[in-house]
Fold this sequence. Notes:
Layout: H1 16-51, H2 54-70, H3 72-88, H4 94-110, H5 112-118, H6 123-148, H7 152-175, H8 179-202, H9 218-245, H10 248-266, H11 269-279, H12 284-317, H13 328-350, H14 358-374, H15 379-403
Helix pairs in contact: 1-7, 1-10, 1-11, 2-6, 2-9, 2-10, 3-6, 3-9, 4-6, 6-7, 6-8, 7-8, 9-10, 9-13, 9-14, 9-15, 10-12, 10-13, 11-12, 11-13, 12-13, 13-15, 14-15
Amino acid sequence: MIRRTDDVDGSGTPSPSTGARALGTAGLAVTAAGLLANGLAYLVPVLAARQLGSADLSALATTLGLIAIASVPGFGLQLAVAVHHAKHGHTQTRRAALLTAALCASALILASPLLVTSLRLPAEALVLSAITTAAIVLSCRTLGELQGGQRFVRLAIGMGLLATGRYGGVLVGLLLDAGLTGSLLLGAGTAALTPVGLAALARPAAPAAPATAPPLDAGQILTGCAAMLAMLVVSYVDLFLARQLLPADDSGGYAVGTVLTKGALWAPQVATVLALPRLARDDRFSRAVALAVTAGCGVLLILGSTFAGTLAFHLVGGPDYTHLGPFAPLFAAVGALYAVVFVLLNAAVATGVRWPAAPLWVGSALLTTVALWTTPRTVSGLLWLALGAAVVTTLAMTLRTWMSTPARVDRLVPAPRRASAGS
């Protein structure tokens, strides 16, 4: 039986203080897991900047960006499994996970000729990216089961395992000076082991009862995928443009700067994770709190990068990139704006707003069109365009949120019951 968060002692008597402590524990655990994942993600370009030349550094950053985008359906799968599990209990989702993983990996393989030509990437890097992507998608299924059962501590551990498998092999390869291909090969190997470890983590203590829940609807996965894909594309499109438009040295420098962007984007993600069940019930107070926390975190990061931009670039990329320090606040501002967009996007999906990701696609198209038309050849030229696109996207998303009248979409809204956060 699933225990409520406000009754974690099993006594049957609701206890708000106990529920608050459980929620606090969940928040701390998810925050710690997010910090670990972000730390490992940032450590890769930090180490790569010292081990690889500018061209290989940019290629590695671009490859990791492709993996992030190609694995987006996995996070759509996680959302669908989590919501379905929370509403209906355990159900068989292995087939859906295998099919989603196969489709994601196949898409990368089929797109290889185009990506090799347009992004100047080696073919073997794309094959290894496909393996890593499939492993991430399969892992997301288990994370969805943990999240749907609201076993937040185990969810946090699972997030840490996934991050370690996703980036650990790449880091080892860089430390061993294995080069671009060797590092990606080790990364694919550790990622492939992750679904096995997560399956052991999620295994229940007692045999599960036969599943009686209705089957998982593919529409649930597609809805989450469309939103997450738009979020990842809008946050990575400037990196891809840098790879195509800027000289090799400037492209590598821009890749270092986007580490600050991703930090500002994903640092406050715990606010969205904890607020999502209330967002699904159109709780505007919880939405306001999540936005306030996210915006406050972004302001702090922008201020910090303003006073320590040179140090930030030195820590991330080494002494060769410290001359880009004055641009640190702009990179952080782009990420902070998209962090606000991420909260609004989750709220829109949870409450059933039609075409919730439309402003993000418009922002991506706008940035791409203007950049290809003006063809900036410097970091500052492209960065100002990226910041402008982020401002336009945030304003459009905010306007869309306040003007929309959400329709109830039961398939994507978690039930109001909440389970223990401790296991």
